[in-house]
Write a structure and sequence with these properties.
Elements (H helix, E strand, L loop, with lengths): L17 E5 L5 E3 L12 E7 L6 E5 L1 H12 L6 H12 L1 E5 L5 E3 L2 H7 L4 E6 L4 E4 L1 H7 L3 H8 L7
Antiparallel strand pairs: 1-7, 2-6, 3-4, 3-5, 4-8, 7-8
Length: 158
């Protein structure tokens, strides 16, 4: 497994690497120490993601969640598409806090849909992270969409 790193100890956490973790009977996963917020409540929003296929759990720290809510909320209240999006995000989202040991409780309905039983793969994604069923994550790497992205890396500003 690749170890995760952070920026400065007082800076934002960067969620990097892959971490295979057990899921306990209470549906909790242990976050890597470097992924745990210091001096805060350790609250995260957890979303079944993507909204259409619900393959994994997307985990957002408070600042990233606030940015998402702000972006979605900029639409007019009369915009029906925006209302559908807000409804889908809200219906597939949960707020959970780390316990004193650094374990993140997974919302039971979402964990069942994502196939998180005994093991979970935590996958860093910069300012957020994902929680996958390890077999589903491995299968996602062989998907046509993944291959298209890799074939067209020159089109991305890296």
């Amino acid at each position: 497994m690749v170890m995760a790193t952070t920026t400065k100890s007082d800076g934002p956490i960067r969620y990097l690497g892959q971490h295979l973790r057990g899921v306990d009977k209470s549906r909790r996963v242990m976050l890597p120490p470097e992924w745990r917020p210091k001096g805060t409540s350790g609250e995260f929003s957890i979303h079944l993601w993507p909204l259409d296929t619900r393959e994994y759990l997307l985990v957002l720290p408070p600042a990233r969640w606030a940015k998402m809510v702000e972006n979605i909320g900029e639409a007019s209240l009369t915009d029906r598409k925006a209302a559908v999006l807000q409804r889908l995000v809200g219906a597939n989202s949960y707020t959970k806090s780390l316990d004193a040991y650094g374990r993140l409780p997974l919302p039971d309905p979402a964990a069942r849909v994502a196939g998180l039983e005994n093991e979970a793969l935590l996958v860093g994604s910069g300012d957020k992270f994902e929680i996958w069923n390890p077999a589903k994550f491995a299968a996602s790497l062989d998907q046509p969409e993944t291959k298209r992205v890799l074939e067209n890396l020159e089109n991305y500003k890296l």
